[in-house]
Amino acid sequence: MRKATKIRTYPTTEQAAFLNRQFGAVRFCYNTGLRIMSHRYQRHGQSLSAKHDIKKLLPVAKKSRKYGWLKEADSMALQQSCINLDQAFQRFFDPKQKAGYPRFKSKRGKQSSYHCVGIQAGENWIRVPKLGPIKAKVHRKVEGKLKSITLTRTVTGKHYASLLFETEQVAPEPLKDVDAAGVVGLDMGLSHLAIDSTGHKTSNPRFLTQAAANLRRKQKALSRCQKGSANRAKARLLVVKAHERLANARNDFQHKLSRQIVDDNQAVIVETLKVRNMMKNTRLAKHIGDASWYALAAKLDYKAMEKGKRLVRIDPWFASSKTCHVCHHKMDAMPLNVRSWECPACQTHHDRDINAALNIKHQGMIHLKAEGLSVSAHGGSRKSGMSPVAA
To answer: Which residues are catalytic?
Structure first.
């Protein structure tokens, strides 16, 4: 099993200057490769491969007088930038991912470099090629073989390192016997971020709404500054820091919530939301982006996989809200302003969100049985984190 941990690093002034030059070299290789590929296709109609054609140009550029400064950076980091460009084009041509055309990287955005050769990590330091030990705060020790280190610098100037280890721990096999009581269905919403099939509702923190006044004040101060001035750079940094605190708060909340859901259940059923289409709603787009449903589902996915548990994504066109979970009667329409309704067939009064969560759970159990799992109404493993003992 491979595990990664992200730590904070504290490079010295000389080390930070070297990292800035290395980030610039990586960004230069990516942008130059993108420009060459775009120009070659527009002028001559020929397609180049960033992984092969552009990558072969790196040794030639290092020997030239104009681009000889590329020799200062780690060669593996420069080669990885070409691989990243190739993957960006693959996502663009893949009709399932619907990714846009690769864009040029800005020097004002987040910077990163990948290293996999000549790397080391200690109790309070890390080492990458062509640079001495960098002071780091290793808050979580992971046993295993160090495979790679990815250095990053945020827009606010903070340095981080992502350490990837290959451990001897074997990935747990997914559960084959699931208790129905250990299956939970989750319905995502705006008033409440997550509503489970037991009737528990998790309120939406609305981090963007809470920080709206602070962001508005700092953004107005930035807009008043003259472009290119030192005061504008200071005001821009204040805006970036406010957005960083907002993102960190949302990320921390989702990590804690996803950990609790995975630990308390054996299988988690979620609905597949078409967030791209939902963001076209001009009245709710800001709130939908603030809820960040996709990020929450992604955290649930890898946490469940790590514990050997199941995460099932049901069909996005499944009518979970307007179907009665008792008699399965389906309403013709269910506007968003209807938060509770009564089934005309069985006269059962439903809370819209809880009813949707129950339908999602039932649909997920059907998927689990179709995959060959044994879903028992009684018995099985009820305790979180434990799989049933084989006879």
So the answer is: 187, 271, 353
